[in-house]
Write a sequence for this structure.
């Protein structure tokens, strides 16, 4: 089992390296950082622009491959290069990565736990009113794209706050820099409410649909009946035997759903004005910021890698057959 | 006839019936609606900027005086066309790649599946967003190609695993012994036997593509002005959603209803084509 996971990890690391290189090549060939310096008033001499771009490793007159080698050797040494106006990508990334990871972590956790829980609950209550309600609402939610959902949430909160006359739920930014101590902590939590809802609602719906189907499959099987027949309490039988088995497919979908969540995080960050990696992607594409785009791509593919590794681990923990082979 | 049975089952399914009715109404609205409205989508009414819905402008007007009704329907036409094209191309690609990988096995299989893994590591949204500045000024068909190129990977995996079991069937082996070329066997025997999967997948891909298009256009990475799609309209509306709700409500509402009705049909198709499955 350990060897299997190690091999998976090794191939995934290679995949991430190739994917990041491809992303760099794409960004370096399609984007035009020179545009930011041309057409300025007063005009900048071409030699000056060249020198500046050379310093940032962004000069389109240098062959792409040469730029790539410079970039890659920097990344291997832990230096992601410079942004289009000379700032350090590392510094900027250090600021933003925590923001995104917090959002993604909370969103994934809430989405997975609530989704699986609701799905299992609605399977146990099959054809009752609560099952119908969960089914219909998850179907409707899955038809609402993140950016519509986030905008709707922002509008609703705006009207709620205006109706109340004070700010009950924050809908822009990440925290209020004027506060400190516990006030600051609660303020951060308050700012987290809306982005978490907008990010996790989709995955709650997704997981609950998968989990309901799997749970229904399992509930009719012999081993659950045996577990009940040998005198286990209904709750123990459902949790320890049925839910655990039915979790395996949801765990394998985890890696896939995480990719969707990354995209969702981009919209959520942008709409709720969080300065995370997703928002940076959009900004840096608009600014022709090659190195920043490459850094975000590397971050995204690393996240997908970690998610698929976690999903392997989760499946191994849940499924004894995987551990034996 | 099997298709008759399937159609019967589909129409018997209440959700699928609602989905079909809604979709027909939406398509009719998108393509017949513009003839009923008083304004063209390119018209600008300089006496009415940002006016709320009224008898003259049914769904209000935009910041530059365009009639929201005409513009939204034009955007919906574009979204529907893009959704259909992307779904067709990506499902075809998934079928061909998956079937070739599964049927030939060995080195081809490893190479193709490795490519699939690679494409799955980078979120497609990211790649399309990086490439899109290049496409500014180009035809929107390039955008369709891009969307389709990054939407087929997961289905192709499913197709591959189903091909692995199909290729051992007697009729496939019989065709091999008759000396039919292997690529012909794939198109004549393997893919037709996966048709139910492919039909379901294509349907669900339509809604996925509609959302994908809108998502990219939301950030300005998709359809470029002056052309409009539901995505660009929602992006425009979201900026002013609190003050001028009609700019946001109509395109967003239509997008959700469109996606919902396609998903309902897809789910109904799954039940009708593949009654044993439950996912």
């Amino acid at each position: 089992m350990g060897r299997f996971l190690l091999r998976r990890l090794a191939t995934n690391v290679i995949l991430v390296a190739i994917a990041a290189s491809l992303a760099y090549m794409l960004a370096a060939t399609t984007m035009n950082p020179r545009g930011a310096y041309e057409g300025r008033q007063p005009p900048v001499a071409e030699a000056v622009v060249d020198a500046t771009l050379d310093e940032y490793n962004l000069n389109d007159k240098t062959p792409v491959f040469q730029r790539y080698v410079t970039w890659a050797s920097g990344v291997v040494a832990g230096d992601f290069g410079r942004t289009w106006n000379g700032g350090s990508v590392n510094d900027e990334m250090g600021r933003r990565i925590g923001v995104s990871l917090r959002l993604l972590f909370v969103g994934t956790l809430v989405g997975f736990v609530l989704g699986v829980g609701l799905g299992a609950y609605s399977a146990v209550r099959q054809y009752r009113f609560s099952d119908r309600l969960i089914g219909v609402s998850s179907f409707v939610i899955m038809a609402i794209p993140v950016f519509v959902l986030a905008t709707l949430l922002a509008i609703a909160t705006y009207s709620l706050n205006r109706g109340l006359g004070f700010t009950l739920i924050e809908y822009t930014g990440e925290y209020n820099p004027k506060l400190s101590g516990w006030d600051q902590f609660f303020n951060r939590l308050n700012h987290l409410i809306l982005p978490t809802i907008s990010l996790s609602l989709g995955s709650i719906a997704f997981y609950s649909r998968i989990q309901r189907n799997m749970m229904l499959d399992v509930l009719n099987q012999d081993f659950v009946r045996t577990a009940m027949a040998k005198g286990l309490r209904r709750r123990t039988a459902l949790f320890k035997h049925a839910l655990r088995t039915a979790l395996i497919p949801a765990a394998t979908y985890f890696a896939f759903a995480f990719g969707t969540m990354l995209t969702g995080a981009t919209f959520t960050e942008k709409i709720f004005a969080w300065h995370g990696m997703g928002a940076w992607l959009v900004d840096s594409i608009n600014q022709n910021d090659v190195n920043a785009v490459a850094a975000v791509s590397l971050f995204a593919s690393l996240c997908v890698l970690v998610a698929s590794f976690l999903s392997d681990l989760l499946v191994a923990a849940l499924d004894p057959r995987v551990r034996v082979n | 006839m099997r298709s008759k049975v399937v159609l019967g089952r589909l129409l018997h399914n209440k959700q699928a019936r609602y989905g079909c009715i809604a979709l027909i109404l939406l398509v009719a609205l998108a393509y017949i609606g513009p003839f009923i409205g008083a304004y063209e989508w390119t018209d600008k009414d300089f006496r009415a900027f940002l006016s709320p819905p009224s008898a003259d402008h049914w769904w209000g007007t935009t910041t530059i005086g365009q009639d929201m009704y005409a513009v939204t329907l034009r955007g919906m036409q574009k979204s529907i066309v893009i959704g259909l094209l992307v779904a067709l191309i990506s499902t075809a690609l998934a079928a061909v790649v998956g079937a070739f990988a599964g049927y030939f096995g060995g080195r081809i299989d490893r190479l193709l599946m490795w490519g699939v893994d690679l494409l799955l590591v980078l979120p497609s949204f990211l790649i399309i967003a990086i490439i899109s500045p290049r496409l500014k000024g180009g035809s929107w068909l390039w955008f369709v190609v891009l969307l389709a190129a990054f939407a087929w990977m997961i289905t192709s995996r499913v197709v591959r695993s189903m091909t692995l079991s199909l290729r051992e069937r007697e009729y496939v082996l019989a065709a091999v012994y008759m000396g039919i070329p292997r690529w012909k066997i794939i198109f004549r025997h393997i893919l037709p036997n996966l048709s139910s999967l492919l039909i379901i997948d294509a349907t669900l891909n339509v809604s996925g593509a509609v959302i994908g298009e809108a998502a990219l256009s939301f950030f300005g990475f998709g359809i470029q002005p002056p052309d409009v799609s539901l995505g660009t309209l929602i992006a425009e509306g979201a900026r002013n959603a609190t003050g001028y709700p009609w700019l946001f409500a109509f395109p967003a509402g239509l997008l959700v209803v469109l996606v919902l009705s396609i998903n309902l049909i897809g789910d109904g198709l799954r039940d009708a084509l593949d009654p044993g499955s439950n996912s």
